[in-house]
Amino acid sequence: MKGAIAISAVLAAFGAALSFEPTLVSGEHAPATTRASDPIDNLQKNALGDLPANLAAMSGDWSIRPESDGGENHVVEMSGDALEIGALAFGPQASTGRAEARVRSWATGKRCPEMGIAIGGADGWKLWLLPVQNKVELRFGDETRAAAEWNGWESSAWIHVVIEVRQAGRAIQVRAKVFPADATPPADWPLSIATDARELPAGRAVVFGTPFSERAIQFDDLQFLAE
Prior knowledge:
Blueprint: H1 7-14, E1 56-59, E2 62-66, E3 74-78, E4 86-94, E5 97-104, E6 114-119, E7 125-130, E8 135-140, E9 143-149, E10 159-168, E11 171-180, E12 191-196, E13 203-210, E14 217-226
Antiparallel strand pairs: 1-4, 2-3, 3-14, 4-13, 5-10, 5-14, 6-7, 6-13, 7-8, 8-9, 10-11, 11-12
């Protein structure tokens, strides 16, 4: 992989910047106060139904729904009626930063959905979950740049997805992780590559879903802390 041998050098160059930890906010999980500079999509404050102005459906059928029938927590949900890749943009325009969310869906027999999150717009850097193949991928546009085994997906369980894009001069580091939402976040990043600033598109953060199981895909705690 081009530039992969330079990962250790790039990591050293980033230093303390890679220890960045944002405050997780949204839905009923949000703390009472947050930093004014945090870009927040607090779904709990939104009425059920149509998307608020700060969320933009790029493809697919999206709406604000209760997490469960009669539940009080609000989520943004992509319908499972159409077998297409759905995309929803949130947060500010930026090329670097940290995007994260919680996501869940359901299997139908052996059919499972695919899900992802991106920085730099729909054609930017993506973390992509492939439950049927028990793996996760780091993609640039539609090109897979790195892959790792991951078999932690369970039907109906919430999963936490995180992707970071950092720049130091002309060097770019992209890394991502995924873990059960009720677990302690792992310290390691199973997906991590180095590249250069030619591969640094600007755009909003995006969450994706492909409902191969024909079931809804839900997202919550959307956050993009741009740099």
